[in-house]
Amino acid sequence: MIEIRNLELTYRASHSTHHALRGVSLSVPRGALLTLLGPSGCGKTTLLRSIAGLETPDHGSIRIDGETVFSAEDGIDVPSARRNLGMVFQSYAIWPHMSVFENAAFPLRYRSKVQGISARGRVMECLALVQLQHLADRPAPMLSGGQQQRLALARALVASPKVLLLDEPLSNLDARLREEMRFELRRIVLSSGVTTIFVTHEQTEALSMSDIVAVMKDGNIVQADAPRGLYQHPSSEFVANFLVRSNLVPGTVRDSHEGQANIDSPVGVIACLIASPLTAGSPVTIVLKPESVSLLPPAQAPEAAVGQIEATAFMGDAVECAVRVGPIVILAKLPGDTTLTAGDTVAIVVAPNQNTAFPAQS
Ligand SMILES: Nc1ncnc2c1ncn2[C@@H]1O[C@H](COP(=O)(O)OP(=O)(O)O)[C@@H](O)[C@H]1O
Ligand SMILES: [Mg+2]
């Protein structure tokens, strides 16, 4: 549905230039929900605004549903209004002097019909999709934050766009509401069938909502895959550690074969996945997920490395433990009913093949 090829964009100010997109290529299948995930400043908004026709890249091309809407090389730049997009940005503007219905109907104000149905019917259909049909006549400022967010979505969908672009649309909501809206947003997007690009800097948001997550770093997409694939098979140390706040454990390859290696480390021999071939004896960094670590009474795991708990943090559903093993401290995430406390001596057992080892960066 969306084909982006080699997009480059440099912001030029009087005293500085910033290379915001460095050759981005991306495909989004029809009907998919793709998330752009990356740290602040990596170029997510710039990429989204380029697709929307609000920025003009220096190189590359963008096709939407088979039509080239932008090509720097061929001098094509279809105006934003004719790209057939729906957009919701972080500061979604709800018109305060209008009712819920009038807000949702705004993009259709000059149309009496959309795809053969009356504009009024289409507006009510979209309000029903976001479950606001019973509030159609209410003044828009009298909606809660979450309801305003849903109204912004209805307004973005009302003209039946080919593509929906969402730039951190949940970031103004409080944590609880944001979690509820994740499910809601995915339901709305799937039932409307619209191809969607969603931007966020939050890992759980990306993993829980998306068909595909594209991880961005410094103006590039470094990996794109289904959430589970990305979580299990990160292709770089950056992706692995960005997705899950992890322990970076130094190690040395003992032996390796077909996507897997045994690594000597301060926490014993760990069976790891590898993204590229590693030779025996070479130095690596294991991106060790806290949830892959179990702590046992030393007698139950006589082979395992032994450490001492330095601190614990009770999180409700989990207990995080910082364990000192020789020169390093490992963070372990244990079930919430764990009763271990600071000072306890424990054996450290790492589940096999749940972590990835990468060549050590010199
Ligand atoms: N209008 C602009 N002029 C100059 N630099 C900009 C402009 N907009 C964004 N940038 C810079 O480009 C980089 C990417 O910005 P942005 O796409 O907004 O990142 P993200 O959305 O991932 O946080 C940042 O370093 C930002 O400071
Ligand atoms: Mg942004």
Shape: globular
Taking the sheet with the most strands, its summary is: 6 strands, mixed
CATH class of the largest domain: Alpha Beta
Tally the beta strands. 23
**CATH architectural group of the largest domain:** 3-Layer(aba) Sandwich
How would you write the strand order of the largest sheet? Answer: 7-10-11-3-12-13
Assign the CATH superfamily of the largest domain.
P-loop containing nucleotide triphosphate hydrolases
Oligomerization category of the chains in this entry: single chain
Global Rg? 25 Å
From the helix content, strand content and strand pairing, which structural class follows? alpha+beta
Task: Summarize the structure in words.
The chain is of the alpha+beta class and 362 residues long. Helices cover 21% and strands 39% of the residues. The chain is built from eight helices and 23 strands. The protein has helices at 44-52, 100-105, 119-129, 145-157, 175-192, 203-209, 227-232, 237-243; strands at 2-12, 17-28, 33-37, 59-64, 67-71, 76-77, 85-88, 113-114, 117-118, 163-167, 195-200, 212-217, 220-225, 247-257, 260-265, 268-274, 283-288, 293-296, 305-314, 318-325, 328-335, 345-350, 356-359. It has a six-stranded mixed sheet, with helices on both faces. The protein has a five-stranded antiparallel sheet with strand order 2-1-4-5-6, covered by helices on one side. A five-stranded mixed barrel has the order 14-15-16-23-17. Strand 4 and strand 5 form a beta hairpin.
